[in-house]
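PROTOCOL LOG
Step 1. Enter all chains and additional molecules of the complex.
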Amino acid sequence: MDHGLIFRWLLFGEWRSHLLQAVVVITAIALGVALGYAIHLINTAAYNEFSAATKNLTGQSDLQVRGTQAMFDERLYPALMARDDVVTANPVLELDVVVSAKQTERSDNKLKILGIDLFRAMEISPDLIGMPAEGKPLDGLSDDAIFLSPAAMEWLQVKQDESLQLRVGTQTINFRVAGGLVRSRAGQRIAVMDIATAQWRFQHLGLLSRIELKLAEGVNHAAFKTKLTQELGEYYRVTESADQETRVNNMSRAYRVNLNMLALVALFTGAFLVFSSQALSVIRRRHQFALLRVLGLTRRELLQQILSEGAVLGVVGSLLGLALGYVTAFIALQYFGGDLGSGFFKGVQPALFFSVSSAAIFFLLGLGVTLLGSAVPAWEAANANTAPALKSGSEEMALKRLARPWPALLCLGLAGLFVLMPPIFDLPVFGYLAIALLLIGGIALMPYISTLFFSMASTWNNTRIYNVIAALTLARLANASNQASIALGGVLASFSLMVAMAIMVTSFRESVDDWLEQVLPADIYVQLAASGDQGGFQLPQQEAIAAIPGVSRYDFSRFIKLTLDPGRPEITLIARPIDATDPRNTLPIIGNTVEPGLLTDDVIPIWVSEAMVDLYNFTVGKQVRLPLRTAGPDTPQFIVAGVWRDYGRQFGAIQMQLSDYQLLSNDLNVNTAALWLQTGTTAEQLMASLKNLSFGGALDITQSSDIRTLSLEIFDRSFAVTYLLEAVAVVIGLLGVAASFSAQALARTKEFGMLRHIGVMRRQVLRMLAAEGGLLTVLGVILGFVIGWGISLILVFVVNPQSFHWTMQLHLPWSWLAIVALVMVVLAGLTALIAGRHAVSGNAIRAVREDW
Amino acid sequence: MVFSTYAYGKKTWLLVFARMVTIAWSLFTAVSFAESPRYMPVMPDYDLVFPKDYGSHQGFRIEWWYVTGWLETPDEKPLGFQVTFFRYATDHDSENPSRFAPKHLIIAHLALSDPAVGKLLHEEKTARESFDLAYARQGNTDVKLDDWTFVRVADGSYEVEMQGSNIGLKLSLKPTQPILLQGGDGFSRKGPEPEQASYYYSEPHLQVAGTVFRHGKSVTVSGSAWLDHEWSSDILDPNADGWDWVGANLDDGSALMAFQIRLKKGGKLWAYAALRDAAGHVTLFEPEQVEFTPQRTWRSPHTDAVYPVEMRIRTGETEWLLTPLFDDQELDSRQSTAAVYWEGAVTLSRDGQPAGRGYLELTGYFRPLDM
Amino acid sequence: MLKLININKGYADGRQVLSNLSYCLNNGEYVAIMGDSGVGKSTLLNLIAGLDKPDTGEILIDDVAISSLDDDAATRLRREKFGFIFQAFYILPHLTLSQNVALPLLLNGVSIEAAEQMLVAVGLQGRGHHFPRQLSGGELQRVAIARALIHRPKLVLADEPTGNLDPDTAHEILMLMRTEIKANGASGIIVTHSKAAAATADRVLVLTKDGLHPAVLN
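Step 2. Run joint prediction.
Step 3. Record the structure below.
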């Protein structure tokens, strides 16, 4: 039989009459696919570029040797070079140096500088060798030459032969831009100079950041790595390129995965919309399908018909989505960079890369979601009893099957179980599954709850206040609420997610705000434009700062980078004065602590951030060792005395007493001074006195209120994407409501015609419709709020700690939620009304004609 | 003596390793144009003092130890070799206390001429003098570049060890004759201006024994070599175009060295020759007594450069005919150092009779196309 | 061509509708079935069309037991051998008249050219491109007749085909039905309350709880 023609006739017939619904489904799928695909493209591009750029910096070495601290003694270099199994050792000094011209741009004023020996680099990282001007072949060895990548030149607005001022501590140093780094990655902002020049000019004499090794042919890399690790001892880490990749991967994975998840949520919401739209379409056409069955369409053919209709929508939507996603990604990369404002992939300029396989995956996701949404209605229609289905009034019957509460309760139960599960590969896989199940379960329960709710309301109305419109409305909602509930499914999903995100973001923001207040108790913070672990305030400078009039109290802190695990990003060690009697006065401690009285003299107390507990298992009371270079011969033992909350360093941070640190390391320099004002002194006065110090020009002075404002700005910027995703989800949801309400109103034309015949006034019909829409939405909003609250609990207490290793307190944005709820109810009522006007406008005769 | 004219094309610049040029070969041009006053000038009437002058002279801009020679493999096949160690003083700030400070560079070069291969095999290396990984020591010949070494040991012979990725050698060079001071007292003029000069002595007829490695296989070799040690701060005249040089151990125990510096506009800027007979009597030739006449040219299929691979050299009344071991002894390292010159083993004949064996160097014949 | 053998059928609530019903309809025969409401006329039609199954007994269409076929086979038999005319017309609203009429041809996988001709036959020439909403009730039922007969079925089942029409239109439609069923050589069963409608059939049967009986015409 010619199924193709029937298929097309029915499809186009349906589209002709219900174009809006088809458009909504296509839009929902397209937007879902577009968002997912765009975020995937951006993330992949940024990650690959970041990874390539990182690789570009380490070249084609077999192994890299680093210190557990940022710098180590250069004498390791000749020792490694002298080994028979090492062909070449490439010493590198890598520094982030403040550019004088950019000093005012606090968050973005450093240039990555690599000091290299070009003769060694030639064999391992030739891309990092600068190209000198013609006739100046020896600039690569010069004591004043710097080579800049194109991106760095653009950023700094300098050209070859011009000069560049860099800040080191309290000094400004002039360099001559000797040439470019033509092989650097697009957007990579780096500079290269001779290693001796870098050591000398940036006060890093005798120090290296890493040594890259090329091993002799036939040397077993793994065995050599083990041997060298043992020989070098605990203050060194021998890593492979694979470790480097793991490290880069670990650094951004939580961010990337969570963003991808958010994008998939949009697609997931789309699935609900497809379901509700397809379910309503199938119910509306129940008679038509029954007739086709009578005329001789088999079950399978009918199933095929409905699924194929869905597939067409899915294909069109997915293809549109891919195109839209590509364009979105392109624009986003052009205007916002690869990290979408989150700061995870700084200093790279990724290029989009189209891969057939990822496009195919997102296409199939979009199509799959559509088919999934169509499957249940199609199955129901194909298996309906044909003869009864021909009769009118059988629609609700069909939906009874979809309204059973047990599968929904099962989903909710599973969700409850999943939130207790631990993360997989550091990712909250079960957390996300629980969210999906909670959403499915909650929405599947909607028809059941609405019947219950409206039956009660109807009974109440009939016994208390008898109002014909109310009676009609409630009767309809109580007895035929399934269709309406399904219509609400899409918007319920998006509303729940919006509520969840809003609660999560508010909780996070409030917690960060509280935290900032706790960690920034002083009035003014002073820093030196330092590079690496070197520099900072030396003793005379510390004394000068302490002696400034108007300072009531001062605290100095020292920041050190430590590598505990070569596969993970560095952690930060912060040494500062901590209230020994009660650390809670200094640190945002959470949970138990080791009582100060219980600490013995042979172990040094440290307080670790939550990430340290998750990533390195530094639990309270545990004795640990740190690869901290000490002045004495003994390796000190540390005890985890408490855990504090840290939103600033996702990869882990440790705090210890500055006095302990100085005793251990003999390093008396500090990086930051926190200053409290004396009463009667203003911040401006103190800042002016600081500027007047002999090294005042090199100081970076900030008021704590500015740091707070800046931090919250960064916070808001990084969540901007999620706001966008929420808005998109809600708009799709509302579109779905509009489409299904208008479809239902059309289907009920005859009912309205009858009501008009028996004397119900036009505006009464409209009022009834608005009331129906409004009441349903009220219920939807309530349920959506409950589901959203549940999801937010999962986000706050499962997903966040598992992905980012920090906890937060729950805060509910009541007023914001109330406004959104009100807007939703009004919008849904209006939508119902507009849809209804269209249906009521026809005359009564036509209403009778349009029987089905 | 590798006064190779530093020439690089645009294409070369695009190559990753092009930077090496920068160092190895350009420094010679750098010498000729930009002389830094802090380097010591080469003055006449200086008496070379040994063993001190076997060692490095850090006060001078550039210095090299340069060995060429003929070897014989156990199956009596001839094999030419060339070993060079340079020290080059950079303009890097001498105040820089960093151990990495690149105040001096050490550059080494190794080439083998095997007629069976039909072209040159070569390796090169550069490093800054630092951490005892690379150095040129004062007091006696002692040069090191990673695992490449060139050392004068107690009995006056030289030990050279160089192991590259494809070729290598480990040779012992034993003097059989006293050293030969060029220019009479070691002051060797390189042009009409008095400051265009170098300190220069040679050790001809070094007796060679050792091993040569090629592609993982080693062969025992023996033969005879010629050593030059030369240092200066200013050598080439700006009008110089290139350089033809020959050093040869003659069969009768005498030693011949001759060179000419060609003018860009054609003709000869300067020339010199010295002939020492077996008895130790040295004859020096003035520029006008030395004449290089090309006999046969060879066009390189690699670079299109045309070299006078067969050369007739007149020193006073004597005519020498130089015949290459094989034609393609061009060193084309545009991929790495961008230097292109001809450097090969040659046999010498006088009056149609074989007279000896030596090395001929022809530089400045390659002109990259300007694209 | 149609044989009903000892059909028993009860509703889900236990009420017995048809008991021991047997009947035989010959080729080309056109009968009307009358009976009180709730006696099981529509149930009988559903059983014959294979839309429902008897509790016991057999229904043979051209010696094929439709009552024991699975759904797919029954569906195939239905689309090949049956034509349907309903009280509420059931013309698909978003298809044109031609498309509606052509549906059975498409389902049977044959050329749909005959659709226009069929529309001419039912008096709707030139209106094939119209949509159902542009038609009156009588015209809609003409479309239904065309659809019921386009694929030359063996048996046309009509359930109160004139129930929604005024008497004049109803008569026209009944005559058209009869003419077309006869012209196409089909058998026909018309279920109706209307004596006038029943009168257009070859024979009139009355369905009671005891079975099918020839009507006593007064």
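Step 4. Note key features.
Residues 26-33 of chain B form the longest helix (8 residues).
Residues 10-363 of chain B form a domain with the AttH-like fold fold (CATH 2.40.370.10).
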